[in-house]
Amino acid sequence: MTSKEFQKIIKHGIPDKLPGVRTYDVTLNHAPKRKDILSHEEKKLAVKNALRYFPKKFHAVLAKEFAEELKTYGRIYMYRFRPDYKIYARPIGEYPFKSKQAGAIMHMLSNNLDYAVAQHPHELITYGGNGAVFQNWAQYLLTMKYLATMTDEQTLVMYSGHPLGIFPSHKDAPRIVVTNGMMIPNYSKQDDWEKFNALGVTQYGQMTAGSFMYIGPQGIVHGTTITILNAGRKISKGEPDLAGKVFVSSGLGGMSGAQPKAAVIAGAIAVIAEINPKATHTRHSQGWVDEVFSDLDKLIARIDIARNKKEAVSLAYQGNIVDLWEKFAEKNIKIELGSDQTSLHNPFAGGYYPAGISFEEGKKMLAENPAQFKTEVQKSLVRQVTAINKLVSQGMYFFDYGNAFLLEAGRAGADLFLPSLVLGEGLGVRYKYLSYVQDIMGPMCFDFGFGPFRWVCTSADPKDLETTDKIAIKVLETIYKKAPEEIKQQLADNIHWIKEAQKNKLVVGSRARILYADAEGRIKIAKAFNDAIRKKKISAPVVLGRDHHDVSGTDSPFRETANIYDGSQFTADMAVQNFVGDAFRGATWVSLHNGGGVGWGEVINGGFGLVLDGTKDSERRLKSMLFWDVNNGIARRSWARNKEAIFAIEREMKRTKNLKVTLPNTVDEKILDTLL
Ligand SMILES: NC(=O)c1ccc[n+]([C@@H]2O[C@H](COP(=O)([O-])OP(=O)(O)OC[C@H]3O[C@@H](n4cnc5c(N)ncnc54)[C@H](O)[C@@H]3O)[C@@H](O)[C@H]2O)c1
Questions:
Q1: Given the CA of residue 401, which atom of ligand 1 is nearest to it?
Q2: Mean pLDDT score of the chain, rounded to an integer?
Q3: What domains are there in the chain, each with its CATH number?
Q4: Which end of the chain is more exposed for a tag (fewer CB within 10 A), N or C?
Q5: Ligand 1 center–CA 408 separation, angstroms
Q6: pTM
Q7: Strands annotated E in 219-330
């Protein structure tokens, strides 16, 4: 297909003539069949809803087809409308657009649906099993058409993948405002997602899937490396590094698949269990897993060798994580670090497979007897925790890795709880183990403002990425020289990371880079990129963004805000304020999501995209928006009495005259002890 034909199709949107029926491509990874949850009348409503996108003349044919899709897959994806052209992050100039900002968004959005990047591309799922970019292909076609035709005086409004329309606005307004999964709070349980997603009126956007900010595996490899490195520092007791130490976890999927690679970068021995042979094969053939074992005794013998030689190596166990933990517990194997990264944000719909039955039997049970499947999942979680508890009693450090493991295992009745501080479900619950944010990422990174800043070169040219890497290193090294002791380690880790980034070959899809930086680092790097674009040292606009999993972007009591202890961890003001504040300070697009990471109803998170095009307008926007985007969260964390955040916001107030943050007064605990 020529570039002209591609542009014509994009501008056309939904075709006038019915495209041919698509065959189901069995060579691709597909979303599992979703729960059959709608009543007879609701199924009719789902089909009626889907038909809204099409002219009447198609209805007789499509109604039948959509009803069949709903029956077979539990959702209406409108497979027939999947375009013929290859979807990937093309150089920005290949897209048709009137607004360069909209062109940059098309580049980002397309990356989320690239076959090399997305987990279930035909179901428009980027990662995490249900992290959707759109609910169906009609939404994709319409959105691309709107982006191709809109101007810088318009804003596209998106409700959970559905493009509501383009509305008049102004050049400083966001080009897109995205909301995903926003529900009336009482309708935000897991089955509500199943039901309202099947009806076609909402979706689970995960964090970076439905916000067009996913950059492939690099983001998660970097985040996991930083986490494992810092976890290693926590347990090191004077030993210099992770050499010869064993890290055990589960999952070789979209995000979890980063664990073996990251652990090896951090110098450890990784042992990761994976139940799905396809997922194991993918990571093994990619070189992220060095060796695969299905015999536990052989695996244990191999661990011994690696430990003695202090090898940095990744070993996969093809099987259920419960079997792995139970074997290690039975044989008293020494494990230094433990975690879990099965998809427990989605525990009873295929995110976690129960022990005692094969993967195939598990899938069958899920489709035919979901109630029994749920019981088996809960039994497995209890067994898993029992084995983990034994290894912890022998010295292992276990942490929850942001997948709702403690939450779901606790709900299943596992032996996990310390006495509650306050009665009531959720409130004041204390687990025996901490989440990685409570112990590692919160105090070491987020409270200082360090979080996953990223950028994408819309030229798709590796040379531009190389230029941006060099600029970022220079900026960070300059900051490092004058940085206070408290943040030197984080800066050093990230300077090292970016120097090694090309060697680690983590670019899949768009030309993207990630590193952890604070407000000062993010603003200075962005300003330097903008200058370089103006001077034509970078050939096309650069998109800035971040993971929602950040300082200010996410309110999630068992993850990003797990180290907030004033009760406000169950509120979502910070994330909502962040989204709104970014929108009026110059973001090119903003997004607000229910769900992401730990699951529907458990988290509110938001993010942004900011297009740098070398202009003064870009410079004004980046300074204003990035400052707020980080300092909002630090201010909130400092109000929650987090000492690292108080340090960071006081430092910022000294630098920034217009900033006045309400600081907490400390209370003498003795006054409280005798009070009630
Ligand atoms: N901490 C973070 O920064 C972070 C980041 C991203 C995702 N997450 C969370 O981590 C989880 C995993 O994300 P993902 O994208 O890898 O999901 P995924 O569904 O792609 O991968 C999970 C893998 O676990 C495997 N699995 C399920 N049950 C198993 C069992 N009993 N034994 C062995 N393997 C089993 C699955 O087959 C799957 O391959 C999600 O809940 C996600 O929200 C955390």
A1: 1
A2: 95
A3: 3-168 (no CATH), 242-442 (3.40.50.10730), 450-670 (3.40.1770.10)
A4: C
A5: 14
A6: 0.90
A7: 246-250, 269-274, 291-293, 313-318
